[in-house]
Amino acid sequence: MRTLVIETATAACSVALMEGGTVIAQAHEIVGRGHAERLIPMIAALPEGGRASHILVDCGPGSFTGIRVGVAAARGLALGWGATLSGYSSLPLLATAAFASGVTDDLAVVMEGGHGEVFMQGFTAPSAGTGPFASLRPEAALAALGGRVAVGNGVRFLLALEPTLDVQERLPNAADAILLPPHLAALEPKPIYGRPPDAKPQMIATMSA
Fold this sequence. Notes:
Helices cover 25% and strands 29% of the residues. The longest helix has 18 residues, at 64-81. The protein is globular and about 45 Å long. It is built from 5 helices and 11 strands, in the order E-E-E-H-E-H-E-H-E-E-E-E-H-E-H-E. By secondary structure, the chain is α/β, with parallel strands linked by helices. Strands 6, 7, 8, 9, 10 and 11 form a 6-stranded mixed sheet that branches. A 5-stranded mixed sheet has the order 3-2-1-4-5. Strand 6 (107-114) and strand 7 (117-125) form a beta hairpin.
C-alpha cells in the first residue's frame, strides 16, 4: 500500500511517499507560516502527484494554523482519491526519530507551544510514552525534565534557563513516519491542539423587558 504522509504541525512543511516499508520520495522545507502556500505544490511534485491509497497526517500538537492546514488537505485528498485516512502525533514522531538516531536513554520531547509555553511528554522507548503530554511554562518543564535528553523545537526555551542541558533541536519530518509503530499511526484524523483556543465564544445575555 502506498501512503502519503503530510507534516505541517511546526515551522517545517514536509511530505513523503512510503511503500513497502520504504520512503520512495520526500520533501522537507522550513516555511514558518507558509504551509497553505507550499503544501499542495510539494505534494504535486511527488511521483504521480503524490497519489496514494492511504494518507497519514500529523494531528499535533503544534501550530494551530499548521495543523488545520494539514488535516484539511488530508481530508480533501482522501475524499478526492477515495483513500483511507489516519493521523499521528508529532510528539511520538520526534521521540521515535531521536531513538533511531542513537539516543539510548529516556528522553522528553519538548515542542514550542505558544504563549511562552512548551508541549512536553516523556518517552522510555519509541512507542512508550510515560504519560500524557502537558503544556508547561519553561521553568516547569525544566523542573520536570529530570536529567533526560530534551528533543524538539522547544528546547531553546530550556537552554535559555540551563545552557548545559543535553538537547537535540529538531523538527518533525514526514519521512520519519516510516519508523512509527502501527498503533501510533492509527489516530483519528482530527486536530490535537494541546491547549484551549485563545478566543472564547462571546456570551450574550438576554434581558426581558
